[in-house]
Design goal:
By secondary structure, the chain is mainly alpha-helical. The chain has helices at 9-16, 21-43, 46-62, 72-91, 94-105, 116-128, 132-142, 148-155, 159-176, 180-188. It has ten helices and no strands.
């Protein structure tokens, strides 16, 4: 009987294709808690976080023969992120918006040690639901620090189109995030 505990992630994924339940159990044991913490940090709801993690892991089992996963940890984290976004969109959770606003307000309190990565993760969740072109322009401008002209050349667009898309995206996010302008300034000065 194989000792799946010693398998690499890639070996576990390959074993899944042969319906090895032990491989699935090892993936479950190896990643459940980490994925739960990730989902919980985004949702602040234990039951919803557990449901999302279980759905992601169950989905892997259901699609085991068709899966092509190069990096299991990254794949699972991305799957959790998309499930959380879908969950948010489906429930249109005002509680999440409140919690998001609370997190965004907290860095402005002098004695609060807030993790900047948490801000970026939450902002990325909102950015992920933007239309493709707007998202790419926003990320290139604010995260890759490219100018509007550089983005225009890179994406074969006019500079005006890039500026218009940036303006629309910032307005969209401003309606959801009171402190977006300050956050964007902080992001542009954060070493990456």
């Amino acid at each position: 009987m194989p000792n799946f505990h010693t398998y690499t992630d890639q070996e576990l994924v390959e074993s899944l294709k042969f319906s090895e339940e032990g491989a699935f159990t090892e993936i479950y044991n190896r990643y459940w808690e980490k994925l739960y913490k990730s989902a919980y940090n985004k949702l602040n709801d234990s039951e919803d976080a557990k449901e999302i993690v279980n759905d992601v892991l169950l989905d892997i089992w259901k699609r085991r023969t068709d899966l092509s996963i190069a990096f299991l940890a990254a794949y699972l984290e991305k799957a959790i992120r998309f499930r959380v976004i879908n969950h948010i969109n489906r429930k249109k959770s005002t509680a999440l918006l409140d919690s998001f606003e609370a997190v965004l307000q907290s860095p402005f309190k002098a004695d609060n040690q807030v993790n900047m990565n948490e801000f970026v993760n939450l902002l990325e969740a909102w950015i992920a639901v933007l239309p493709e072109k707007q998202r790419r322009i926003f990320v290139k401008y604010y995260f890759d620090n490219l100018s509007a002209q550089e983005i225009a050349i890179d994406m074969n667009l006019s500079r005006k189109t890039v500026q218009n898309n940036l303006s629309i995206t910032v307005q969209y996010l401003k309606t959801r995030l009171k402190h977006l302008p300050i956050l964007l300034i902080m992001l542009s000065h954060t070493p990456r």
